[in-house]
Amino acid sequence: MIAAKDVGKRFGDAADGVTAIANISMNIAEGEFVSLLGPSGCGKSTFLRCLAGLEQTTGGTLLVDGKPIEGPPERLGMAFQRDALLDWMNVLDNVLLPADFSGGRRREFEPRARELLKMAGLSGFVQAYPRTLSGGMRQRVAMCRSLLLEPRLLLMDEPFGALDALTRDQLNVDLHRLWTQLRMTVVFVTHSISEAIFLSSRIVVFSPRPGTVIEDIQVELPDERRLAVRETEPFGRYSRHVRGLFENMGLLHD
Ligand SMILES: Nc1ncnc2c1ncn2[C@@H]1O[C@H](COP(=O)(O)OP(=O)(O)OP(=O)(O)O)[C@@H](O)[C@H]1O
Ligand SMILES: [Mg+2]
Prior knowledge:
Layout: E1 2-12, E2 17-28, E3 33-37, H1 44-51, E4 59-64, E5 67-68, E6 76-79, H2 91-101, H3 106-119, H4 135-147, E7 153-157, H5 165-182, E8 185-190, H6 193-199, E9 202-206, E10 213-218, H7 233-248
Parallel strand pairs: 3-8, 3-9, 6-7, 7-8
Antiparallel strand pairs: 1-2, 1-4, 4-5, 9-10
Helix pairs in contact: 2-3, 2-4, 6-7
């Protein structure tokens, strides 16, 4: 579905600019859940924005379904660290926003919006306004919004980064369950080693800027992810391995 070959992105001109990413190569198949893990400033968001068609690459080739990206791909869903809910719209209207933008298809999508909110445990909050919700509830609403148009490709940029640890754990479980049910392709940016292992079928580790792929790790854990998987030996092995990569890059030490 996604084919990146030697992708680079430079901001600014040759004399006075920043190379955010360099020589990024990876292929992502339909239905994979891939986490991009790397230090702050290594270009994870930049790469995601290139995939979303919001930013143009300056080197290499980046294809979705075999075609160069010119603007946002069809059936794209996005979720960000800040939830981007509109304060003056209730929960249902916030979730339905993408249907408004896609040619006034609110009525068509309202049953799905309600169903997603139910799946997210928010049935009782359909009419509520964002300011009356907790951070975790807001992020759930944002997740429902990103799923409204049944995306084939879901791009998530640290969606749970601002949440407390317990809420984040719960949302990890919920997101993983949604992914096993819907099987859309997900590219998920995170700083958290354990979040990446818990959620992903594959982890791509980036170097410091200019970001490039250090290692591409296939994660093999039971399909049904329970939080207790984090205490198992295989999980510990992945965790030690990834930590070792960061130690070798000089980004972590005791
Ligand atoms: N629009 C822009 N103009 C100029 N430089 C930019 C722009 N966007 C990003 N950069 C630079 O590109 C580099 C990579 O930024 P990016 O936001 O992709 O990193 P990141 O890996 O997502 O970091 P973090 O984990 O902190 O979110 C940084 O040095 C940043 O300053
Ligand atoms: Mg970022």
